[in-house]
Amino acid sequence: MTENKDIEAKDILSKFKITKKLDYATIYRHKSRNIVMVKYSNSSIIDIANAVEISKNSQFAADLNRPVFALTVPGQYSEITSEAREFFGKDHFNQIVIQATAIIIKDLTHRITFNLYLKFNKPISPIIAFKSIPEAYNWLIDKGAK
Q1: Helical residues (DSSP H) of 63-104, grouped into ranges
Q2: Residue 144 gets which letter from DSSP?
């Protein structure tokens, strides 16, 4: 079963193109659906300046004339500062423009960070954690990603 999930994830990822490569993250846009994906680099530490840059580049990647959806993939051992979490929690693009966000959570550290984000920021649009890219992608399509 794991092998099929990996193949399916690779197929899904092949539908995205890079719009911006940063030292700490890469921003992608789906080739036909209005989904912006942020893949964080392994061992990256996202601070407030990085968060602002990610938000700005995600806006450039999206078609703002259509509903925008987001897929977030944390890097292994990546971290986010409390200031950056707070920024994402209040950022107009992340809270108002994005209709739904799917985040991939594979380890306890990211689960704790995600739970803290939800507890303190109370997102306006739905944000759900998934264990795999196919689950997350299918949920975004169900939420209306076109």
Answers
A1: 82-90, 92
A2: T
- Go through the domains of the chain in sequence order and give each one's CATH number: 34-141 (3.40.50)
Residue 1: C-alpha distances to residues 7, 46, 89, 132 (Å) = 10, 33, 36, 12
Edge-to-edge strand list for the sheet holding 16-21: 16-21, 25-30, 35-40, 68-73, 98-104, 127-130
Burial of 27 (0-12, 13-18, 19+ CB in 10 A): buried
pLDDT in tens, 125-143: 898 999 999 999 999 999 9
Question: If you search the block for the tokens 């998934």, which residue do you land on?
Answer: 130
For the segment 10-30, what is each residue's pLDDT rounded down to a tens digit? 899 999 999 999 999 999 999
pTM over cut 0.90: no
Nearest to 57 by CA among 66, 67, 45, 49: 49
- C-alpha to C-alpha distance for 64 and 73, rounded to whole angstroms: 22
